[in-house]
Amino acid sequence: MNRASFLQNTALAGAAVLLSSLEGFAKENNKIIRVAIIGCGSVSNRYIPHLQTSSLVKIVGLCDIIHERALEQNKQYKVGAITFASIEDLLTGVEFDLMLTLTDMQMHGALNRKAILAGKNVWSEKPLANTYQEGVALVELAKQKGVRIWGAPAVVTSPQFEFMSQTIQSGKLGKLASAHGQYGHTGPTWSSFFYEPLGGSMPDLGVYNMATLTGLLGPAKSVMAMTSIVNKQREIDHKGRVEVKEEDNAHILLEHENGIISHIMCGFNYFDPFGHEAKNQTLHSIQIFGDKGNMRLIGYDWEPKSVVLDTSWTHPPETHVTEDKGYQWQEGATRIATSLSTKIEPKIHVLHSLHVLEIIEAARKSSKEGVKVQLSSAFPWPMV
Ligand SMILES: NC(=O)c1ccc[n+]([C@@H]2O[C@H](COP(=O)([O-])OP(=O)(O)OC[C@H]3O[C@@H](n4cnc5c(N)ncnc54)[C@H](O)[C@@H]3O)[C@@H](O)[C@H]2O)c1
User: Fold this and answer.
1) What pLDDT was estimated at residue 278?
2) What is the pLDDT at residue 7?
C-alpha cells in the first residue's frame, strides 16, 4: 500500500483531515512563497543559502531581537529583505506566507502561536512547541486559522531513510526486535539556551533519532528513560560560565507495536573528533535488528552516508544508498515552501513532530519519577 492510500485507508487518516488542506494556500500552482525568518543566528547560515536555491521561494523578512544580526544576514547573503527586531513588527511590517522559527528553543511555542494567530504558516526548528499540550493546541489553532505548522527535523526525507523504511516494509529483515540510535557531541558553545530549562540534549540532539526510529518502526506506545546532568556548568562564548539546568545526557527506551523495543542515547558530553561536522562521520548511528536481517545507517541520520544491509549467512553485507540525491538536513523549510506552492503533501508530518515532543516530555517524567510513561499520540505510518 503506498503512502497516499495508507492515509486514505487508516483510522489515522482522520488525523490528517484535521489539518488544513494545502489546496487553500496557493491560488495557482508554483506560486512564489514569501518567507520570513525569525532568529538570524547560527542555523540561519544553513537555511538562507538553501532557501535561495529554490525558484519557488523569496525571503522577504528577516527578524532578530538583536537587530544587527538580521541586518548582517541580509547583507551577507544579499537577501534584499526588510529587517525587524520583534515578531510584532515582522507580522505587521511585511506580507508573507511562511514563517521560519529559528530562535532559542524556549521561544518557539510563543512565537509560533503569534504567527499562526496572524494567519501565517509556520516551519519551526525543533521543538515546534515547548510542551506537548502547547503543540497540540498550536495544531488545533492552525486548523481554525486555515494555516499549517510543521516542525524540524527533516530526517524522513533522506534517501537512506526511504531505503530503510522500504526494506523494513518489504519484510527482508524478518520479525523486527530491536533498534538503536545515538547522537552526541561536546555541546554548543555559542548560546546558553541549550543548557537552560526546556533546552537540553533531547530536543536538540535526541530528537533526530526519535524521529528516525519512530518513523521506521512506527509510533511508540510507552517510554522509560534515565537522564542526567554530567557537566553542571558550561563556558559560553561572550557570556562566560552558566549553570546547566536541563539534561546533557539521556538514555531513552521506546516500546513500539509487536514487542519491538528501541533505544536512543544522546548527550552534550560525547567526544567526537568530527565535532558538529558530520561529513566524515562513519559511526553506525542507527541500527535495526530483525530475525532475518539487520541494517546499519552509516553517519548520522540527519546527514547519512549509506546503509549497510546484512541478510545472508553466506554473503558479505551490502552497502546501499551511497548518494545523497540532493538531500540536505537543512532542506525542511524549502520542502515545506515547495509543498505550499505545488500543493503536494510533504513526507514531514506535524503529528510525527508532536509524537516526538510527547516522547521527550515522557522521558523527562520517566527519569524524574522512575516510572514507565504511556504515550497517547500517533501519526500516519508507514511514512514512506
Ligand atoms: N546551530 C545549528 O547548527 C542548528 C542545527 C539544527 C537545528 N538548530 C536549531 O535552531 C534553533 C536556533 O539555534 P541556533 O544555533 O541558530 O541558535 P543561535 O543562538 O545561534 O540563534 C538564535 C537567534 O534567535 C534570536 N532570538 C531569540 N529570541 C528571539 C525572539 N523572541 N525574536 C527574534 N529573535 C530571537 C537570537 O537573538 C539569536 O540570534 C534551535 O532550535 C536549534 O536547536 C540549530
Assistant:
1) 76
2) 39
- Rounded to the nearest 5 degrees, what angle is found at the Cα of 207, between the Cα atoms of 69 and 105? 30
Q: What is the DSSP string of 155-175?
A: GGGSHHHHHHHHHHHHTTT-S
Residue nearest ligand 1's atom 18 by CA: 41
- Dist. CA 115 → ligand 1 center (Å): 17
Q: Is residue 359 helix, strand or coil?
A: helix
Q: Name every residue whose Cβ is closer than 8 Å to that of residue 178 and which is 6 or more positions away in sequence.
A: 260, 261, 262, 263, 288, 289
Phi, psi of 291 (to 5 degrees): -85, -5
Q: Could you tell me how many residues make up the chain?
A: 384
Name the residue with the closest Cα to ligand 1, atom 27: 103
Give me the residues of the chain with pLDDT under 70, please: 1-18, 24-29
Q: Which residues line ligand 1 (CB under 6 A)?
A: 38-43, 63-66, 69, 87, 102-105, 107, 111, 125-126, 190-191, 204
